[in-house]
Amino acid sequence: MLWRALLSVDRPINHIKKTGRFLQMNVMVKLRISLQGFRIK
Description:
By secondary structure, the chain is mainly α. The protein has one helix at 2-40.
């Protein structure tokens, strides 16, 4: 019973970690693009 509860809690945490990484990558890409834009100007 406890094991099942732990698994159900673990899934959202993993999902949050994955989406967090995805958001971090998006932010890094946007920062690089904006930095390149500033260099061109």
